[in-house]
């Protein structure tokens, strides 16, 4: 995560440029929106609450970077982020997900983020606790043998009728102090040696049995599936003390036991109430919800169609109060959506932004149109980003000992074919590159363990792999 103070709009655009080619207007818009959040936090209390997020509507075909821009933006500041499809929702009262669930999903993401951060802070202590538990399993500590305690009723009868006490069995004598100290010292030396071996990983392959808590009771899983989450009810939290989680025995390696027991210890060490408070605050102040396919629910109701369009205008009306600012009840508590940033997106091929209901249009004041991608853009996408496709495939095959190299002609040929197929068929943007790269490298990926260790992908190789498919338009519709 980058320090928010240093995230100027220019720096934000530079960070996005590392992963996304082009789309400068969209990057500027989201950079300003993110910086305005930082500026808002510096305002006085009375003015801070009056500044609302400037929500964004991205317009452009699929595969041009809309989702990636929003996702990378959230990663810059460790902000809770979710992507939802508007078409998955239905109007309240009908079968389907209601729009409030997007906020519940967002706070769930924030909860996991904060919990992981807090667990990381106590990672060292948790690992020591895990090593202690493993050590107790491998070499239990030496304990003195204690004389069995007498039952209270025996003591009472003995006090009243001294002669009524039955002769007790003589307990086994305890070892002498010197013998006990010697045994304890030997045990301690063995434990310290084992501890050093555990810490050094010398025993990681050894098997042992451990008890760990089950993640969730089947009882709660059933009720969760029945929609209790939609009602904002935390059954696990309410009934956790009445129905504690069961422990289950697993046979694992020492390496796996370290991780499992360290995670369990870390969860016990952190303050879960504080985690929940921070998760809600982070959701409210820095959460980002990306609503895709908004164009699919654009359009007004038409007279005579027999009823409301529960997956179109009805959903728009339900989304409106969420974007305007309302309070949603979740299992972690009430969450205000007043300052959550909403980034909506859609291709708007058939419909237009003006087909949205006027109130919703007003809540998406920043409109940016993303450019379609051409051959030159594809060449850059294949090579320049930190997560470029060519870098990914070279890294994958390097794990098999194959050194792969792409010539400039091959890269240009792949980009040209991708642009050509997009123009002839459905334009799916940069996603077409993944399909074509899979076809080009299909044979090499299959024979990687036996193939020669240096492979050069040139223009002729690309043409040979794709020639028949590209020429046959009917075939290319299915394969590319």
CATH topology of the largest domain: Rossmann fold
Number of helices: 21
User: Helices and strands: which structural class?
Assistant: alpha/beta
- The CATH architecture assignment of the largest domain turns out to be 3-Layer(aba) Sandwich
Integer average pLDDT: 82
Question: Helical content, roughly?
Answer: 40-55%
Features:
3 domains, two-stranded antiparallel sheet, 5-stranded parallel beta sheet, 21 helices, single chain, 51% helix
Descriptive account of the structure:
The chain has 480 residues and is of the alpha/beta class. The chain folds into 3 domains: 4-119 and 279-369, P-loop containing nucleotide triphosphate hydrolases (Rossmann fold, 3-Layer(aba) Sandwich), CATH 3.40.50.300; 123-143 and 174-269, no CATH class; 375-468, Helicase, Ruva Protein, domain 3 (Orthogonal Bundle). The protein has helices at 9-17, 24-41, 45-48, 66-76, 100-121, 123-138, 152-160, 177-200, 218-225, 235-239, 254-269, 272-286, 313-324, 358-362, 375-383, 389-398, 408-424, 431-440, 442-446, 459-471, 473-479, and strands spanning 56-59, 81-85, 207-213, 247-253, 288-292, 327-330, 333-336, 341-346, 366-369, 403-406, 454-457. Strands 2-5-8-1-9 form a 5-stranded parallel beta sheet, with helices on both faces. Helix 5 packs across helix 11 and helix 6 packs across helix 8 (177-200). The longest helix is centred in the middle third of the chain and has 24 residues, at 177-200.
